[in-house]
Amino acid sequence: MTRVTLTSKQDAGTSEIKIESLVKEYFSYIHRLTLSILDDSHEADDAAQDTFIAAHHAVEGFRAEANPKTWLTSIAVNACRSRIRKRKVRQTLSTALVALHLLKNQPPSPEQAAIQSEIDQSIWLAVDALDEKHRTPVILRYVHELNVPEIAEILHLSQGTIHSRLHYARQKLQAQLGHLNPREEVPDEPSG
Fold first, then answer.
1. What would the pLDDT profile of 32-75 be if each residue is shown by its tens digit?
2. Least buried of 23, 33, 148, 192, by fewest C-beta within 10 Å?
3. Ramachandran area for residue 37 (φ above 0: left; ψ -120 to 50: alpha; else beta)
4. Domain containing 132 — which CATH number?
């Protein structure tokens, strides 16, 4: 792969980063992100690849003080949005849900797994029913554990707008899923 030099207009110094090292460091994360948004492994593969191609082409616009993960996440979210607009079909997030279950430390009993699977399916169906402008912040916040400032930067929106969209989405989800008696309410930002 080619070597890319990232320069900052504010800073005379340059930092050499290989595109290959960006791919090695962030491809898995970007692929999980695109998969959780698109819920189609083939489209997720393509969107992840498109992300790094776009990053390669847009490297001149990269601000040296910016976080490469946030920059790549923004590119990936835009790639997914483009694909969603083209296909205009909503799909569930079950593939991402399966991937999340593989990360658990202890395997649940078959009965617990069946109950949890039904609950998770209900949650993901409710999340999928949200419109894109509310679903995307929810996925970024609760699946990918990004904080509100990161989400705001990625989506090019104000933090207040992100808080508002998360609040609205939680209200909608609570109305649809109140019967499940959620184990724990997760705030926009960790307390502390």
1. 999 998 888 999 999 999 999 888 887 777 776 778 888 899 99
2. 192
3. alpha
4. 1.10.10.10
